[in-house]
């Protein structure tokens, strides 16, 4: 991720909806998740990120892009893999699996049927394949 994007993506800007949707790719999602889990305890990080993402997708007119189970899973994985006082660059280098094809990680934990269900989109569901 480029330095300007890191400066642009802050918790405050994310929560206020000041995010360029054209630049908010998968890596940017993981970066914001990392900011949350390194700033707040895991429960608060999930709730704040989840609320902000729901608001953002609604404001952008794409509420259907929000997926609770995917959001919570990635936040839990980022929290699990984070180390105290670790910089973003080091976190990213150690956790390449979080930045590849997200479907690979999702398939490790969820069947396609469960993940594509309306229930999984609207609220977090526990994995039906591999426990977190």
Question: Short description, anyone?
Answer:
By secondary structure, the protein is an all-alpha fold.
Structure description:
- There is one protein chain.
- This protein has one domain (3-100).
- The longest helix is centred in the middle third of the chain and has 18 residues, at 42-59.
- The mean pLDDT is 92.
- The chain has nine helices and no strands.
- The chain has helices spanning 3-8, 11-15, 26-39, 42-59, 68-81, 88-94, 102-109, 112-115, 118-122.
Q: Helical region count?
A: 9
Main beta-sheet strand count, sense and barrel state: none
What's the N-to-C terminus distance? 27 Å
Give the fraction of residues assigned to helices. 55-70%
Layout of helices and strands:
Blueprint: H1 3-8, H2 11-15, H3 26-39, H4 42-59, H5 68-81, H6 88-94, H7 102-109, H8 112-115, H9 118-122
Keywords:
single chain; 132 residues; mainly alpha; 9 helices
């Amino acid at each position: 991720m480029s330095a300007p994007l890191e400066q642009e993506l802050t918790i405050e800007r994310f929560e206020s909806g000041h995010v360029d949707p054209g630049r908010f790719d998968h890596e940017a999602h993981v970066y914001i998740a990392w900011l949350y889990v390194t700033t707040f305890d895991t429960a608060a990080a999930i709730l704040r990120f989840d609320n902000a993402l729901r608001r953002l997708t609604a404001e952008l007119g794409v509420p259907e892009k929000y997926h609770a189970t995917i959001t919570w899973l990635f936040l839990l994985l980022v929290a699990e893999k984070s180390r105290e006082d670790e910089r973003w660059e080091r976190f990213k280098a150690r956790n390449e699996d979080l930045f590849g094809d997200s479907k690979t990680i999702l398939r490790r934990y969820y069947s396609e049927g469960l993940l594509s269900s309306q229930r999984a989109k609207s609220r977090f569901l526990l994995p039906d394949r591999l426990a977190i």
